[in-house]
Amino acid sequence: MDPDLYPDLAAAGGLAAALEQAAAGLGADLVTERDARDAVVQARIATTVPDRKPLSVWIYAKERGFGFSGWSRGVELIAGYTEHLEDVVRVGVAWGEGMGLRELHERFPFLHHSERAEAHERGPAAEVELQWRLLHEQAAEAPDFPGFRLLVQAAHAAPRLRQLYPFSSHWVLGFTGRTGQPSKVEVVIAPAYDGRPYRVRDYLHAGDGVIGEASTAEEAVALAIAHLPADLGPAIAGTSDPDD
Fold first, then answer.
1. DSSP three-state, residue 15
2. Model pTM score
């Protein structure tokens, strides 16, 4: 930490201590969670909202600035940057009290949140719906890859897959039962391409775990559905991490 950029942090003994001092000066109720390894340049601001992780805060090395990020159930809801320590305190208090995303942005214009974050706030069904819409848009923007477009259409037409959280990586379509990351991948389908058939797999990346091949997108979808656990229902919020 450069003491010329952060004289207040240097005097306080680190970021966590400086945040607590700034909060006291503002009359704000703020609690930091310290890690002895990084308390000088990083800190976490505690929250009382069960679904929200502590707000992560860090400093920039070459210019004075504070970055922060707030996560909930495996999804980043807010991110931002400010030059003022007091702003970090105010954001931390609002985040910890459960303030909604739109109100957070209105109160703190330097905060950013994504369309997915807003969907997350509405619930897992909204996240799933948004993800399907984005996949349809991705397919429409790749007219030279009809195998992917046909696969997205066939998968979305199947109720059992339509209720899961879909994602795409290198044109491979995957499905999970949770909307956050990390999450267990239930099944993936690689689209037909350059004379190769559709391929249904256990794993995202090519290699072991091939379940079977199919000549059409509909056949591949049927094969994937047959591989799903019988009790797998609509996607739920959260991750596969037991500590989430």
1. helix
2. 0.87
